[in-house]
C-alpha cells in the first residue's frame, strides 16, 4: 500500500471515529466524552491558526492567545448587551448586541483582523526573540485591559446566559454543538491546506527559509507576513467564539501567555509546518492533560518529559515521526 493510500486511510478512519463518537459515547453512557472532545476540536482549530504563522512563516508568536480571547469576548459581550437590553454603542447609531452566531463570527473576525493589523504593523518589523517579546507584550496589554473592564466582570470574567443561536441547529445541545465544531475543524483543515499550497503559501514558506532571497525575487515579504498574521488572528478568533459558546463563560485568562504557550506546545508536539500535525498535537496534549491530571494537579511535571522526548527523538513532531516510519516501510 502506497504512502498516499495509507495517509488517506488514516484520515478517513480518524474522521469516521470523530463522526461516530457521539452516538457511541451515548450508547455506552459516556456522554462526557462529547463535551471533552468538543474542547479538543476547538483547540485544534486554534493550533492550526498558530501553525500557519509559526510552522509556515517562522513567526513564533507568544501572544496568539490574544486573538482567541478577542473572539471569545466578542461573543460574550455581544450576547451580554443583547440579553441585558443595553446598547453596546450609540454613535453613529445605536446597537444593542446580538445572539446570532452568523453575525458574531464575522464581527469577531473583523475585530481580530483590526487588532492584528495594528499590532502586526509594529511586531513584524522585528524578528526572532524581539518578535516573540513584542507579541507577548501586546497580549499582556489586552490581558490587563480586560481585567480593568469591571462592567464586563473584570478579573472574574463574564457569564453567558446561553449559547449563541444558529438557524436550523440547537447549539445548546452538546451533540449538535460537537458536530458544529467538527464541521468548523474540517473547514479549517481544508482552507489551511489550500492556503499553504497556494502561491501565497509558497511565498510565505520561502520567507521562512530565506527572506532576503524572496525579496531579491521581487516579493514584498513584509506584507505577505502581515497578511498571514492577520489571517491566523481571524482563524483564532473563530476558535475563541466557539470556545466561549462551549464553556458559556469568558475571563481575561484567555489572553494570558499561558494559553499562548499551550498552543505553541500543541504545534511543536504534533509537528510544526503540518496542518494535520497541529490537530494531532492538540488531541495528544489535551488527552495527556486529562490522563495526567487524574493522578496529580501538577500534571505539567509529567508532560515535560514527554515533550522533551518528542523534541529529541521526533524533531518534526508526532506526525512527522509517523510519516517517516511509513516511508521506511
Would you mind describing this structure in some detail?
With 329 residues, the protein is mostly helical. The protein has one domain (13-256). It is 73% helix and 1% strand. It is built from twelve helices and two strands. Helix 3 crosses helix 8. The protein is globular, with a radius of gyration of 20 Å. The termini are close together. The mean pLDDT is 90.
Tally of helical segments: 12
- Into which percent range does the helicity of residues fall? over 70%
Give the strand line-up of the largest sheet. Answer: 1-2
Low-confidence stretches: none
Count of distinct strands: 2
Mind describing the biggest β-sheet?
2 strands, antiparallel
Straight-line N-to-C gap: 10 Å
Question: Structural class given helices, strands, pairing?
Answer: mainly alpha
Can you tell me the overall shape?
A: globular
Amino acid at each position: 500500500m502506497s504512502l498516499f493510500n495509507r495517509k488517506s486511510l488514516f484520515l478517513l478512519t480518524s474522521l469516521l471515529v470523530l463522526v461516530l463518537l457521539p452516538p457511541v459515547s451515548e450508547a455506552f453512557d459516556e456522554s462526557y466524552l462529547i463535551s471533552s472532545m468538543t474542547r479538543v476540536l476547538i483547540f485544534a482549530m486554534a493550533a492550526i491558526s498558530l501553525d500557519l504563522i509559526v510552522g509556515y512563516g517562522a513567526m513564533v508568536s507568544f501572544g496568539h492567545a490574544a486573538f482567541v480571547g478577542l473572539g471569545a469576548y466578542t461573543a460574550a459581550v455581544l450576547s451580554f448587551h443583547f440579553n441585558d437590553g443595553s446598547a453596546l454603542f450609540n454613535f453613529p447609531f445605536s446597537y444593542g448586541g446580538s445572539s446570532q452566531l452568523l453575525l458574531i463570527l464575522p464581527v469577531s473576525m473583523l475585530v481580530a483582523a483590526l487588532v492584528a493589523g495594528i499590532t502586526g504593523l509594529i511586531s513584524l518589523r522585528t524578528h526572532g526573540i524581539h518578535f516573540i517579546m513584542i507579541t507577548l507584550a501586546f497580549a499582556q496589554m489586552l490581558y490587563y485591559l480586560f481585567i480593568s473592564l469591571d462592567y464586563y466582570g473584570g478579573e472574574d470574567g463574564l457569564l453567558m446566559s446561553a449559547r449563541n443561536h444558529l438557524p436550523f441547529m440547537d447549539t445548546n445541545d452538546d451533540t449538535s454543538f460537537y458536530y458544529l465544531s467538527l464541521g468548523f475543524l474540517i473547514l479549517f483543515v481544508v482552507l489551511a491546506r489550500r492556503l499553504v499550497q497556494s502561491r501565497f503559501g509558497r511565498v510565505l514558506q520561502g520567507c521562512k527559509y530565506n527572506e532576503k532571497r524572496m525579496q531579491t525575487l521581487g516579493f514584498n515579504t513584509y506584507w505577505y507576513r502581515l497578511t498571514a498574521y492577520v489571517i491566523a488572528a481571524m482563524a483564532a478568533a473563530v476558535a475563541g467564539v466557539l470556545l466561549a459558546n462551549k464553556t458559556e463563560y469568558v475571563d481575561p485568562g484567555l489572553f494570558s501567555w499561558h494559553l499562548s504557550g499551550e498552543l505553541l506546545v500543541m504545534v511543536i508536539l504534533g509537528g510544526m509546518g503540518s496542518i494535520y500535525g497541529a490537530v494531532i498535537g492538540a488531541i495528544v496534549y489535551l488527552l495527556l492533560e486529562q490522563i495526567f491530571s487524574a493522578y496529580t494537579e501538577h500534571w505539567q511535571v509529567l508532560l515535560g518529559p514527554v515533550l522533551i522526548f518528542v523534541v529529541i527523538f521526533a524533531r518534526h513532531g508526532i506526525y512527522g515521526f509517523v510519516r517517516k516510519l511509513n516511508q521506511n516501510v
